[in-house]
């Protein structure tokens, strides 16, 4: 018998209710909400690291530890009806947009109660009910999907905003350039979010790109904002809020680049600082400003409820059934 999912406060869709700023600086309540979401993502992925060697998780994992503020700051500025399209590093996006934590762990475990029946795994999380429209392991492949959704939204006059998440390596793919051109040409309601952790797998930008990214976006007449403090979910939220306001007023596509840094290896639960392509010292200097590390006071307030939600979700996944023969050919097209 399958376990019964229980929606917990920590992953409830309330996170996707757009807060009213009314021109004021960020309130303490909003800061705590952003902090709680970011902490949930980090602790979830730390639990994944713990579980992975036990062979309970049935797919490769690309972790976002160190990068949580990107998903949190961007998604918190969106409305529930807005759509996002992500990459294979999808845990943070799924949770930040309001995806159910129980169903996520069940999906990672390959259980029938997973958000995709156990067939999608870590790299292809989606939850259309909260606007997480999909994620893909193919670099840049979700960008044209987001552009297509934005084209439909403009045609239907729905005021829906669409967001394409990608790493800087995606801009080396032809489809990214086609999408940027089309979005600009038709002044679509879309924001391109580049989550730049410094590397495409193990390759630095200097080894891959001969072009200047800001000049590239200027050539497409797409206004850009760059946030260097990728640990700062407040600053990311503020930047995204302003971009959203302009896009909803019909001001065409925008581009937000966020400099960040991942703690773990490109794929897998371990570290790779000894691989020779990046240094532990750079990462340690980065996390000095990380509120999830530095803000002990807020951490002590919210960590208990976060850990309780994770424990409950893991139990739900453990107690759920495996897919059987009747599910073998379902959802196959």
Observed structural traits:
Rossmann fold; alpha/beta; 333 residues; globular; 6-stranded parallel beta sheet
Main sheet: strand order:
2-1-3-4-8-7
Order of helices and strands: HHEHHEHEHEEEHEHEHHH
What separation lies between the terminal Cα atoms?
28 Å
In the CATH hierarchy, the architecture is 3-Layer(aba) Sandwich
Largest sheet: 6 strands, parallel
CATH homology superfamily name: Thiamin diphosphate (ThDP)-binding fold, Pyr/PP domains
Low-confidence stretches: 1-25
Using the alpha-carbon principal axes, give the shape: globular
- What is the CATH T-level topology? Rossmann fold
Average pLDDT figure:
91
Total number of domains: 1
Task: Summarize the structure in words.
The chain has 333 residues and is α/β, with parallel strands linked by helices. The chain has a single domain (9-14, 26-321), classed as Rossmann fold, CATH 3.40.50.970. The protein contains eleven helices and eight strands. The chain has helices spanning 28-51, 68-76, 91-96, 101-108, 142-156, 174-185, 213-219, 233-248, 280-287, 291-294, 296-319; strands spanning 83-87, 132-136, 162-166, 190-196, 199-200, 203-204, 224-227, 254-259. The strands form two sheets. A six-stranded parallel beta sheet has the order 2-1-3-4-8-7, sandwiched between helices. Strand 5 (199-200) and strand 6 (203-204) form a beta hairpin. 44% of the residues are buried.
